[in-house]
Amino acid sequence: MKYPSDRILVTGGAGFIGSALVHGLNQKGHTNIHITDRLGTDEKWKNLSALVYNDYIEADELMGYIESHPHSRLYSLILHLGACSSTMETDASYLVQNNYRFTHRLAQYAIHTKTRFVYASSAATYGDGSKGMDDKDTSIQNYRPLNMYGYSKQMFDLHAQQHGWLQSITGIKYFNVFGPNENHKGEMRSLVNKAYHQIQETGRLQLFRSHRPDYEDGMQLRDFLYVKDAVAMTLHLAKIPSATGLYNLGSGKAHTWIDLANAIFKAMGKEPQIDFVDMPESIRDKYQYKTEADISKLRETGYDIPLTPLEGSVADYIQNYLAKDKLLGDEDR
Questions:
Q1: Catalytic site residue from 126, 149, 196, 247
Q2: Is 75 a catalytic residue?
Q3: Which pTM does this prediction carry?
Q4: Distance between CA 234 and CA 12 in Å, rounded?
Q5: In this predicted model, what pLDDT tens digit does every residue of 198-220 receive, in sequence order?
Q6: DSSP H helices in 98-256
Q7: Which parts of 239-305 are beta strand (E)?
Q8: Contact 101, 260 (CB under 8 A)
Q9: Is position 149 annotated as part of the catalytic site?
Q10: Given 46, 131, 185, 266, the catalytic residue
Q11: Among the listed residues 27, 48, 317, 320, the one whose alpha carbon sits nearest the alpha carbon of residue 192
Q12: What is the DSSP letter of 140?
């Protein structure tokens, strides 16, 4: 049997970044797409409603399908976003199976069949940042993730490096991505999403106090990346076979939580009203006080598209999606 040479697989394709990638592919004219995910009982199925794709496969069935064609190149590109992305998950065995073993098997198949393979690593692999956040640094064994989610991603990065896989596949370290299609993520939603609803209900926004003397309240730093920029960066790397190894995907500039809060209030046409609350003790020793992506390695591949400024991306998300209760793709109809 001959398989389509242009068919694309997107794992986690009903999730936040996965569905945004499918939307990005649709905008480029790609519709011969297989989506796989675990839809479960939440409402992430809604993210699929405005997308155009060829078939949907439950994640538990995917490896059986692939392993029944072990020598066939079923896809021209695999975008592997499927994972448990909760930094609060404590079931280490579940994270190993979901984030490490599944990725291992899928990458092994892709390498064997010479299929372009791009997978989601995470900025969480860098831990507290004391060892740097440099995607050109090959000493990745020195990083100490602060939670099991980050370590499950680190496990595969290390395996891929040790076995020479990073010479032919691409791992993406997403920083703090936010934007449309994250409604289903519960407590893992971005602050922009949570804050919009909180401000609508109370007129005020709660932020965590700092529990380090070198950071004032609200001055903790994050590299916030709009999902539309994350999609453009990912699809750029996917089309360059020589762009292998690990890549940071962020805005390249850290902003404070106060910066983000002010942008949210401005987009909603309201004056900032911020209250500081204690950070739960369970996450205090796992909290990153600063993340900032060096994206020069990405730029060296020829990615020269300007990034959306923080205020502009927050305004687009709030005014064109949250306020209108729309998902990516709805704006095209």
A1: 149
A2: no
A3: 0.94
A4: 15
A5: 999 999 999 999 999 999 999 99
A6: 102-112, 148-162, 191-202, 227-238
A7: 245-249, 255-256, 274-277
A8: no
A9: yes
A10: 185
A11: 317
A12: G
